[in-house]
Amino acid sequence: MLAHHDSFQTITKSCLDAYFTGFGLNPAKLPPYKDYVNIIVDLTTNFGKNGADDYCSKEVSVETCLGPLFNSACMTGAAFQDMYGMSQIESYEYATDFPVRAYMCDNKKFMEDNLACFDSVYTTHLDDRKKCTDSVEKAIQNVADGDYCKPWGPFVQCLDDVYVKYCGDKVKGCNVR
Predict the structure, then answer these.
(1) Model pTM score
(2) How far apart are CA 104 and CA 110, in angstroms?
(3) How far apart are the C-alpha atoms of 94 and 86, rounded to whole Å?
(4) What average pLDDT does the segment 133-152 reach?
């Protein structure tokens, strides 16, 4: 069974490496999560709809490459930690980013309609977002029962509140698959 897991993880890493390389990143030394997100924000901010199309094209490519592995144990924080040797917090940030961005690309019209506000929240309301990030980081460090998914529910709610505060109720409750 372990060999089966290893082959799935090898496939997953190969797909992710190609995805990260598409952004000009070196998969052997991925940047801190915030720097990775800044690349995506820059893409959508500087190129608008074309940048969103470019990002979503990369997102669809990695989803296609991964197939059913996209929603598997190979795409968890623990798997990212194994594959990329990053800290626990960084690995969970990277891992949770994929379903969020997949949702955004699946709902591209909604994303495009609200892109300026989303980017503005990311670039100009750092203190509000940092409260959410600090809270989830502390919660992850204090997990006693091994359930590292539990802290992410309050984190998502916290971010939802931040985005609603600046972008309005129309962005409330965007559920991630």
Answers:
(1) 0.71
(2) 8
(3) 10
(4) 76
Q: For 78-95, how does the pLDDT look when each residue is reduced to its tens digit (9 = 90+)?
A: 889 999 999 888 888 888
**pLDDT (average), residues 132-156:** 77
The number of beta carbons lying within 10 Å of the beta carbon of residue 138 is 10
Which of 143, 126, 115, 122 is closest to 52 using CA atoms? 115
What single string gives the DSSP state of each residue in 129-174? Answer: HHHHHHHHHHHHHT--SS-TTTTHHHHHHHHHHHHHHHH-GGGTT-
Please name which of 28, 26, 22, 96 lies closest in space to residue 59, comparing C-alpha atoms: 22
Amino acid sitting at position 173: G
- Cβ contacts of 115 within 8 Å, gap of 6 or more: 44, 48, 49, 52
Q: State how far the Cα of 120 lies from the Cα of 176, in Å rounded to an integer.
A: 21
- State both tokens at 128: 């509000």
Contact 70, 79 (CB under 8 A): no
